[in-house]
From TrEMBL:
The keyword Membrane applies. PANTHER family: HYDROXYPROLINE O-ARABINOSYLTRANSFERASE RDN1, PEPTIDYL SERINE ALPHA-GALACTOSYLTRANSFERASE. It comes from the Eukaryota. This is Hydroxyproline O-arabinosyltransferase-like domain-containing protein. It comes from Cannabis sativa. GO terms for molecular function: glycosyltransferase activity. Coiled coil: none annotated.
Length: 366
């Protein structure tokens, strides 16, 4: 196991042995989304919104706990690539807008930069530089740097808040976000494609039967999660090790692909006996979630493609589109065109918020 002391830099020999044989598993996003739509069709209302209970408390005793009023530290891992930088700038802009509004429990903010050296956003965004994995070790799966970045940051940084929100660059705060955790029970967003029970054979390689039933592994990733700092300090080294072991196992790597690190966090949490409060109102994901409502974070991971009639053309480039992957080498321009009539409110709100940020961030186009 990778310990938490004497961790100035990773041991290349140890990490090479753990991840020898890595290969990068790409994914077909369209297949996942279509599966999601099919599996959800029985629970849709007439307007297409999924009828779900927005909050599910786990375990049972959390129902009687008080919601924590403690501040949380907003932390996101990032690289110095232009694609990551422009997303971080927009994310930080909306953090500043929402931080002091009624209902917010936001504390300070840190971009945990795992590129190893400072970049040109150090003065604009509060940042903490940590080491990446040794060169080539992630085999193109750059997300493997995330758990290792958190281990280093937690070990070296001075973090005043009792809680931490693990966020990502492609998150926009749509409403002031309170601390959704309850004491020692973190809060997390449940992802439809994280299915421990359906992958029990693989999960058992890392979460043996003697640890308990497989449904102890929550259907989550590490982000968004609000968690006590002391608990994350215990989970993070295990998260690193499980991630590396999963990537080193060909069956697991093939089965989990681009969500492998998410499964690793879920398993690592379960190994420490940590259960999460599942909050469906934590986040929305356009274009599949149609309205923002009272949900807190917009996650713009999916491309939004529509024809001029306002009809979704997912999987086919639309006459109107917004897709973050269109801007891999540099930021999107200011004043993006708004969607045509008929496009869901969530997509309109997303583009409007991107436009507001780019109009107000100094030196955006440079």
């Amino acid at each position: 196991m990778i310990g938490r002391k004497n961790m100035g830099r990773p041991s290349p020999v140890l990490l090479v042995l753990l991840v020898l044989g890595f290969f990068f598993a790409t994914y077909n996003l369209l297949t996942i989304v279509m599966h999601h739509k099919a599996s959800s069709s029985e629970n849709l209302s007439a307007d297409g919104l999924k009828l779900v209970e927005p909050v599910r408390l786990m375990p049972e005793e959390t129902k009687t706990d008080e919601i924590s009023k403690s501040k949380y530290h907003v932390a996101l891992t990032a690289t110095d690539a232009p694609y990551s930088q422009w997303q971080c700038r927009i994310m930080y802009y909306w953090y500043k807008v929402m931080k002091d509004k009624p209902g917010s429990d936001m504390g300070k903010f840190t971009r945990v930069l795992h590129s190893g050296t400072p970049d040109n956003l150090m003065e604009e965004i509060p940042s903490f530089v940590v080491d990446p994995l040794p060169q080539g070790l992630d085999r193109g799966y750059i997300v493997l740097n995330r758990p290792w970045a958190f281990v280093q940051w937690l070990e070296k940084a001075t973090i005043e808040e009792e809680y931490i929100l693990m966020a990502e660059p492609d998150h926009i705060f749509a409403n002031p976000l309170p601390n959704l955790a309850k004491g020692n029970h973190p809060a997390a967003y449940p992802f439809f494609y994280i299915k421990p029970a359906e992958n029990e054979k693989i999960i058992r390689k890392f979460y043996p039967e003697e640890n308990g039933p497989v449904n102890n592994v929550d259907p989550i990733g590490n982000s968004p999660v609000i968690i006590k700092k002391s608990i994350l300090e215990e989970i993070a080294p295990t998260w690193v090790n499980v991630s590396l072991r999963m990537k080193d196992d060909p069956e697991t790597d093939k089965a989990f692909g681009w969500v492998l690190e998410m499964y690793a966090y879920a398993v690592a949490s379960a190994l420490h006996g940590v259960r999460h409060i599942l909050r469906k109102d934590f986040m929305l994901q356009p274009p599949w979630d149609l309205e923002v409502g009272k949900r807190f974070i917009i996650h713009y991971t999916y491309g939004c493609d529509y024809n001029l009639k306002g009809e979704l053309t997912y999987g086919k480039i639309g006459e109107w589109r917004f897709d973050k992957r269109s801007y891999l080498s540099g930021p999107p321009p200011k004043n993006l065109s708004l969607p045509p009539p008929g496009v869901p409110e969530s997509v309109v709100r997303l583009v409007t918020m991107v436009n507001e940020a780019t109009a107000n961030i100094p030196g955006w186009e440079t």
